[in-house]
Write a structure and sequence with these properties.
- Helix content is 15%, strand content 29%.
- It has a single domain (10-115), classed as Spore Coat Polysaccharide Biosynthesis Protein SpsA, Chain A.
- It has a five-stranded mixed beta sheet with strand order 3-2-4-1-5.
- The chain is of the alpha+beta class.
Length: 119
């Protein structure tokens, strides 16, 4: 493991996820993140238990060590880092926030819609 850090069974990060329509779906099993539905490469590892798919809600809580574990450099989507870590045996878990009102304001247009109460 990069940097000699061994976290054992400790969850390295937790991602807020939702059961809602989305083009990209993260795949979780009993051990955490295991793949991404729309990736050509398929799952990051074999499943351990039932597989559940969720849309990433854009919120994450991570251990400070996570940045030192990245093997790739340059600009890449954060989900790519999580998938790389999952493939190397690190645990990334879900926190299902489907039951709560949620609005994606990741673009200026969506932010204006939210501010105008059109969601």
């Amino acid at each position: 493991m990069a940097g000699g850090v061994r976290l054992g069974n400790r969850v390295l990060g937790t991602l807020a996820v939702q059961d809602r329509p989305a083009a990209r779906r993260l795949l979780f099993d009993d051990q955490g993140l295991m793949g991404w539905e729309n990736r050509e490469a398929g799952a990051a590892r074999q499943s351990a238990g039932a597989v559940r798919d969720f849309a990433f809600a854009g919120i994450h809580v991570v251990e400070p060590e996570i940045l030192g574990l990245a093997e790739r450099t340059g600009v890449l989507p954060i989900v790519e880092l999580y998938l790389d870590l999952a493939a190397r045996g690190y645990r990334i878990g879900p926190a299902d926030v489907s039951a709560y009102p949620w609005q994606d304001v990741g673009t200026p247009e969506r932010l204006r819609e939210a501010e105008a109460g059109r969601w």
